[in-house]
């Protein structure tokens, strides 16, 4: 292209062929040049053969695949350009060159690849050793083994001198269009459309006029070329012409065009911490109050929010919050209100945590009042009267209003009469039945009448019931009855049968019809706060002060205009235990609690369920406790996630561009920074994550989850999200995948994502993660899939491995196709049952590890084995990592080997991880170190050696990055006074004990006892003795000495599992609760020889179900400790004497202090059982902080709720957090700064910061 200075020079070139105007034939015209002779053709042919050899390095071929019935595809013929007529006698012409033009080298050349695909030309063979062919050497690991069979390769890219003339012209055209902006190009498009006809055709004159109107100057030859290219017998196709100009403009290099093509969504953005975001919100609220001299009525808002929070969960709908704020005339609106609502929407489900919302308002108002003291006087000032938009009722005359009211009252009275008649008939029939006076035929006639009535009502019953519920709710609000009147006015009258059915369904006519007159005849014009509201005088059109009248109350939210029947809140009436029992028997209420006063004015506490009621005497300090229903001021914030999922997942650790390490556990994706030792968490998934991948830019993360077994709505899908902001970009495949998303992989640096699910046929799909468009879909048809990867050298080639399966696929995203490319050719090599792992190096070589412990090298990513490591591991190879000159492999045997990447693949280093860490699941490079993911869900690290071998003199880092359990974890206890071990201990059914340091957020150590399934654990404050309960009913006591342990007691106490174990305060006794409803006591007794040993003493048996939890008394009572135990379904509580094994009266234990508070069935927990939490799920565990001010509750739905403690009264509010699949145990740290939770089968140990 450099040989031409302009488009005119290019067009005037005489070395091109001219196409005839009919575009059907062409002839070669070479000005003043005769046809070359045969002697001249020979050097030209030789030069033509040597040119591809010189540019051979620029040609990119696909991997060689041995195929049985595949033919070499000939390249398609180039498109021909239209001719250009010239006015001069010696006109230069433009077209395509001859097929064998030596100057342009655009003719079709011979295939330079030899018969064996080595790409060696005949001239090169002659130059090497006097024409002797070079002997074939043994291929290296990176060589391509070629065969005589034809190969399938990717299309050959054109050489620099083989570029299409159309592309050359487009490049020159882009230089001319560089001076015009994108706005000018769009204006040209509008002009072309203005001149075009219905077929999008224009004339040459109209094209010139469009260029002239938009001040775009192109030479006549360029314009003529465009005309010849896009003109047909109907005119010039303006749309194709504009697309051609746009493509040329995009290559112009103009700044606006470059900015348009630049991808900025993959670049990392500076992120504000949550504290900085909160401080910014508070500052903006302060500025709002100071600038507008405003005031937040936090107390009134809290009152209304509490009433609107029917479920007592501390959350209400987003729209309801906005409505209440507007009715309170809260000076909060626009972007600031949206930001605050977004901040308080903790679970991104349109439910606002209103205590958090009010806390922001309260803090900002206090700060604003300190900065501007004049704001303190605003609450005492009367609020300005804001006019309210008049309703349609205000426009009616008094006569019309009275007529409407009389009609409505008449209908209601008719409903009352019919209800009374029906009741009287029913009562008469019942009395006759009791007296035996009713006759059989009368019974039949009555039943027939009832059947006919039901059949008449059945067709519309569903609609009527739904309308009745809506009307009932409206009537109970301040504007409900008025809405009915508005509906009546607008012509949407309900039929008399509908009103009858509505009244029968509601069975409530307690509202006063006369109050409608007050609302209908009044004409209020102002809206005020309930505390300063005015009441309407009957029959008058003016407002009078409410100070002389008692405010009306109803179950409605306040702050409604007086024209809409404004009424104040009233406290919900507490039900008696009998009422609740009756209501629960008729409805679906699972569990409720009551707090009532008897005739003796003594307060009694009880927990009532469908099957049982547990009553408690009042505690000794009940009068000192303040009955506050508000949720606690403290909140929980996820601080740390312990563990990693390497037991059943592969390729799930990546390093981001921010140098953070991303991995997952349960439904949480963890982003960990080793430099700052901090974690961030992506928590948008609704069930367990099973696969993970990261874009080549290192900022886009893709995670796939499983389909929930308990909630069918939580289906398997893929989430694409940003690592810097943790914002979701796309949700792909919802409802498409079965069971789980098994594996995902990006195609090079593109936005294409390959996905395989775990359905029976193994569905393979291709997505564009930015647009969310499906680019391909096919079926793999194999039993198990282990991994899939794209070749970095050939991004359109995908490799999939699995059980007796290894296959190459090629993707065609433009045509939305995914086709199989090749199958492996093992020749005489051993084929393994499982091909477990895949890895590509920078040169495109593929390496596979299989279940035989062998590593195969597939040169250039092809399907032929070029090198191998036979039985490198004793067992399957789980991971292969390619370095520059070495290959690292890890397997189930726990060994890490280093192999020199040469012909012989010599081993030059090894490292064995501790047996307690299991096998090596994954190797990931991170700077100068290697991250090791293990099969027991731990993450270790090593620092590579800078010597010849990367593993020479290398040792594991002493402190693991994280550790966890690979099977169900339930045991959780605290060790407050330990010096060497961690302060928190967990135990799981995998036989592993893990010690953690919550303050430092570090794993300390672990102990593995294979073959024992632990369900519960407890330890003495010193940590020297640990007691464990097993699934088989064994009680195990361990003596801990440093990092070693000794078993001092192991006895099977029962046939059922031990669910809870606790040391007594003096450490001399152990209480173990079992699923058989018994509590077993073991004591540390002295032997005759002076030694001590643990012996079984006795058991308590009075519970009807499994023991959920138990507590020891802090001090002895009559020289004996007491034990408080409980079960949850049905709720039971018993208090025992640990010496005489007798049950103690609860009245005598109300003043006793307990060592711990883990019993959910207790007098201090009565309020918990009236919440939605207890109605919709089972309470599994509770924990009280050391200050005895907070109680955390874990349930079967995986939620943690935070209440005030003690929680006596029903209707208490709480903070609720979505965490595990199920919460099995909770524990506050010794200082109360953290709350730890374990999730059972999700293998997760979470640490929450109490803020």
TrEMBL record:
The residue ranges of the EF-hand domain are: 296-331
Keyword entries, A-Z: Repeat, WD repeat
InterPro entries the UniProt entry points to? Beta-prop_EML-like_2nd (IPR055442), Beta-prop_EML_1st (IPR055439), DUF5580_M (IPR049246), EF-hand-dom_pair (IPR011992), EF_hand_dom (IPR002048), HELP (IPR005108), Quinoprotein_ADH-like_sf (IPR011047), WD40/YVTN_repeat-like_dom_sf (IPR015943)
Q: Does the keyword Repeat apply?
A: yes
Q: Give me the Gene Ontology terms describing cellular component.
A: mitotic spindle
This protein is called: EF-hand domain-containing protein
Q: Which GO terms describe its molecular function?
A: calcium ion binding; microtubule binding
What family does this belong to?
Belongs to the WD repeat EMAP family.
Q: Which GO terms describe its biological process?
A: microtubule cytoskeleton organization
In which residue ranges is the amino acid composition biased (Basic and acidic residues)?
38-53
Q: Where does this protein have compositionally biased stretches of type Polar residues?
A: 144-156, 513-525, 533-548, 575-590
Q: Name the source organism.
A: Magallana gigas
Q: Which Pfam families match?
A: Beta-prop_EML (PF23409), Beta-prop_EML_2 (PF23414), DUF5580_M (PF20742), HELP (PF03451)
Q: Where in the sequence does UniProt note compositional bias of the Basic residues kind?
A: 70-80, 107-116
Question: Which intervals of the chain form a coiled coil?
Answer: none
Q: Where is this region: Disordered?
A: 18-162, 513-557, 571-590
């Amino acid at each position: 292209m450099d040989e031409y200075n302009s488009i005119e020079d290019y067009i005037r070139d005489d070395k091109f062929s001219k196409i005839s105007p009919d575009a059907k034939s062409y002839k070669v015209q070479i000005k003043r040049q005769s046809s070359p002779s045969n002697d001249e053709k020979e050097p030209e042919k030789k030069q033509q053969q040597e040119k591809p050899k010189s540019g051979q390095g620029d040609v990119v071929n696909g991997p060689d695949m041995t195929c049985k019935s595949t033919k070499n595809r000939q390249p398609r013929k180039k498109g021909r350009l239209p001719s250009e007529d010239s006015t001069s006698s010696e006109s230069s012409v433009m077209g395509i060159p001859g097929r064998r033009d030596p100057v342009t080298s655009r003719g079709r050349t011979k295939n330079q690849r030899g018969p064996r695909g080595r790409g060696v030309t005949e001239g090169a063979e002659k130059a090497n050793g006097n024409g002797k062919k070079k002997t074939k050497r043994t291929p290296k690991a990176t060589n391509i083994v070629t065969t005589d069979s034809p190969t399938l390769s990717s299309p050959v890219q054109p050489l620099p001198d083989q570029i299409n003339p159309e592309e050359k012209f487009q490049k020159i055209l882009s230089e001319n269009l560089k001076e015009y902006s994108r706005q000018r190009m769009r204006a040209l498009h509008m002009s072309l459309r203005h001149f075009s006809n219905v077929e999008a055709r224009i004339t040459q004159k109209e094209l010139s006029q469009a260029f002239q109107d938009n001040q775009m100057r192109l030479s006549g030859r360029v314009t003529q070329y465009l005309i010849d290219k896009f003109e047909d017998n109907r005119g010039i196709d303006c749309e194709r012409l504009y697309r051609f100009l746009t493509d040329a403009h995009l290559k112009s290099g103009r700044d606006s065009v470059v900015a348009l093509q630049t991808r900025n969504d993959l670049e990392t953005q500076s992120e504000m911490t949550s504290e900085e975001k909160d401080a910014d919100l508070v500052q903006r609220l302060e500025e709002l109050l100071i600038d507008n001299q405003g005031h937040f009525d936090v107390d009134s808002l809290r009152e209304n929010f509490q009433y609107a929070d029917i479920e007592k969960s501390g959350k209400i709908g987003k729209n309801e919050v906005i409505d209440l704020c507007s009715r309170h005339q809260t000076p909060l609106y626009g972007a600031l209100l949206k930001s605050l609502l977004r901040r308080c929407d903790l679970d991104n489900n349109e439910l606002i945590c209103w205590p958090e919302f009010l806390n922001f308002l309260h803090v900002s108002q206090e700060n604003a009042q300190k900065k501007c003291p004049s704001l303190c006087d605003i609450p005492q000032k009367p609020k300005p009267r804001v006019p309210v938009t008049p309703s349609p009722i205000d426009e009616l005359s008094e006569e019309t209003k009275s007529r409407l009211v009389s009609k409505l009252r008449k209908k209601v009275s008719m409903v009352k009469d019919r209800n009374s008649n029906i009741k009287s008939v029913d009562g008469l029939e019942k009395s006759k039945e009791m007296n035996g006076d009713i006759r059989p035929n009368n019974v039949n006639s009555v039943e027939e009448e009832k059947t006919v009535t039901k059949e008449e009502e059945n067709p519309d019953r569903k609609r009527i019931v739904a309308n009745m519920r809506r009307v009932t709710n409206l009537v109970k609000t301040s504007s409900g009855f008025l809405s009915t009147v508005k509906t009546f006015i607008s012509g949407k009258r309900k039929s008399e049968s509908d009103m009858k059915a509505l009244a029968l369904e509601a069975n409530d006519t307690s509202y006063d019809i006369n109050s409608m007159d007050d609302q209908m005849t009044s004409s209020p014009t102002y809206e005020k706060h309930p505390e300063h509201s005015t009441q309407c005088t009957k029959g008058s059109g003016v407002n009078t002060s409410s100070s002389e009248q008692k405010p009306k109350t109803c179950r409605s939210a306040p702050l409604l205009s007086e024209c809409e029947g404004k009424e104040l809140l009233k406290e919900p009436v507490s039900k008696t235990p009998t009422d609740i029992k009756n209501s629960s028997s008729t409805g679906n209420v699972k569990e409720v609690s009551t707090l009532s006063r008897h005739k003796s004015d003594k307060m009694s506490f009880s927990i009532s369920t469908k099957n049982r009621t547990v009553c408690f005497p009042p505690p000794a300090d009940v009068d000192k406790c303040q009955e506050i229903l508000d949720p606690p001021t403290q909140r929980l914030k996820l601080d740390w996630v312990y563990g990693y999922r390497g037991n059943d997942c592969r390729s799930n650790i990546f390093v981001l561009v921010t140098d953070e390490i991303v991995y997952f556990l349960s439904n949480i994706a963890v982003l960990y920074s080793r430099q700052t030792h901090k974690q961030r968490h992506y928590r948008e998934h609704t069930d367990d994550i099973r696969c993970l991948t990261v874009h080549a830019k290192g900022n886009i993360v893709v995670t796939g989850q499983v389909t929930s077994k308990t909630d069918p709505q939580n289906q398997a899908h893929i989430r694409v999200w940003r690592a810097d902001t943790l914002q979701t970009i796309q949700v792909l495949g919802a409802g498409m995948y079965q069971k789980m998303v098994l594996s995902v992989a990006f195609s090079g640096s593109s936005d294409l994502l390959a996905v395989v699910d775990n359905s029976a046929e193994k569905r393979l799909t291709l997505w564009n993660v930015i647009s969310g468009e499906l680019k391909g879909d096919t079926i793999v048809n194999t039993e198990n899939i282990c991994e899939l990867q794209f070749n970095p050298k050939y991004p359109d080639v995908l490799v999939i491995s699995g059980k007796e399966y290894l296959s190459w696929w090629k993707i065609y995203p433009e045509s939305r196709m995914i086709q199989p490319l090749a199958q492996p050719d093992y020749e005489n090599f051993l084929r393994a049952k499982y091909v477990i792992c895949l890895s590509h190096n920078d040169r495109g070589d593929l390496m596979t590890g299989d279940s035989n412990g062998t590593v195969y090298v597939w040169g250039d990513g092809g399907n032929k084995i070029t090198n191998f490591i036979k039985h490198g591991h004793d067992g399957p190879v789980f991971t292969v990592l390619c370095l520059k000159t070495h290959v690292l492999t890890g397997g189930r045997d726990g060994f890490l080997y280093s192999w020199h990447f040469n012909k012989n693949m010599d081993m030059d280093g090894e490292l064995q991880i501790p047996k307690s860490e299991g096998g090596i699941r994954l190797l990931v490079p991170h700077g100068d170190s290697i991250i090791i993911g293990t099969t027991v869900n731990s993450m270790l690290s090593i620092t590579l050696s800078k010597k010849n071998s990367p593993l020479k003199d290398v040792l594991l880092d002493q402190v693991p990055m994280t550790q966890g359990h690979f099977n169900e974890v339930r045991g959780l206890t605290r060790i407050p006074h330990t010096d060497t071990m961690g302060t928190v201990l967990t135990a799981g059914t995998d036989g592993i004990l893990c010690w953690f340091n919550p303050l430092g957020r570090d794993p300390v150590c672990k102990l593995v006892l294979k073959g024992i399934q632990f369900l519960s654990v407890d330890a003495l404050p010193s940590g020297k003795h640990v007691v464990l309960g097993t699934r088989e009913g064994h009680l195990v006591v361990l003596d801990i000495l440093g990092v070693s342990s000794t078993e001092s007691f192991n006895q099977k106490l029962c046939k059922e599992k031990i669910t809870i174990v606790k040391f007594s305060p003096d450490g001399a006794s152990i209480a173990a609760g079992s699923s058989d409803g018994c509590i077993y006591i073991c004591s540390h007794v002295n032997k005759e020889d002076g030694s001590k040993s643990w012996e079984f003493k006795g058991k308590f048996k009075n519970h009807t179900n499994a023991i959920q939890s138990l507590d020891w008394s802090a001090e002895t009572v009559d020289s004996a400790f007491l034990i408080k135990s409980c079960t949850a379904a049905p709720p039971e509580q018993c208090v025992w004497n640990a010496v005489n094994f007798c049950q103690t009266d609860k009245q005598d234990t109300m003043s006793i202090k307990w060592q711990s508070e883990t019993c959910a069935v207790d007098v201090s927990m009565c309020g918990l059982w009236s919440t939605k939490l207890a109605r919709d799920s089972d309470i599994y565990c509770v924990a009280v902080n050391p200050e005895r001010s907070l109680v955390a509750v874990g349930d079967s739905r995986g939620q943690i709720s935070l209440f005030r403690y003690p929680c006596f009264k029903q209707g208490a509010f709480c903070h609720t957090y979505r965490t595990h699949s199920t919460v099995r145990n909770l524990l506050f740290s010794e200082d109360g700064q953290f709350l730890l939770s374990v999730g059972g089968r999700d293998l997760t140990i979470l640490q929450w910061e109490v803020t």
